[in-house]
Amino acid sequence: MGKVVMYASVSVDGFIADENDQPGPLFDWLVSGDVPLDESGVLKVSQTSYDYVRPYWDQIGVTIAGRHVFDMTDGWDGTPPSGVDHVVVVTHRPEPEGWDPEAPFHFVDGVEAAVAKAQALAGDRIVEVAAGDIGGQALAAGLVEEVRMDVVPVVFGSGKRYFGSVHAQHLLEDPDEVIQGNRVLHLRFRVRRRPS
């Protein structure tokens, strides 16, 4: 099965959005370079960021997101973001009325069920869990194997936390990667497993 990775861009004080659910400058690094990150030509990053991000994006088979993110993005118009094959949406509500049943979106109740569904769909590819409440729930349940953060030089002071409502301590291993790009610091940590 593919590795489960929690991922997002994050402020230096640990927020993935401000109080109004806006990312503000968190995605500025995605347009701060001259190397196209995808076919759209909109996202352009430094060569260093490209060399780190593109291979990771190419390994993602499924993204897990919460219903709030799904609703905010209008379900990405039925097309998973960043070339991902499937999106698993954690929700207690049914899919939106009029939703195309052929769209590669799967509506699942609960984070454990979402990770199981995502791993079945992803095969040996990465299952990416969006940071925030859903990512925090997956981490607390012991389902996350790796944490990736694109740390952006901004302080929000308050907002939506990277680890959601996690209140217990979770240890990470020493960083596997620390890479400086334009307006971003890419970090990758393995999650330390608790002794059985």
TrEMBL record:
Residues 4-170 form the Bacterial bifunctional deaminase-reductase C-terminal domain. InterPro entries: DHFR-like_dom_sf, RibDG_C. This is Dihydrofolate reductase. The lineage of its organism: Bacteria, Bacillati, Actinomycetota, Actinomycetes, Micrococcales. SUPFAM superfamilies: Dihydrofolate reductase-like. It comes from Agromyces ramosus. It comes from the Bacteria. It holds the Pfam family RibD_C. Gene3D superfamilies: Dihydrofolate Reductase, subunit A (3.40.430.10).
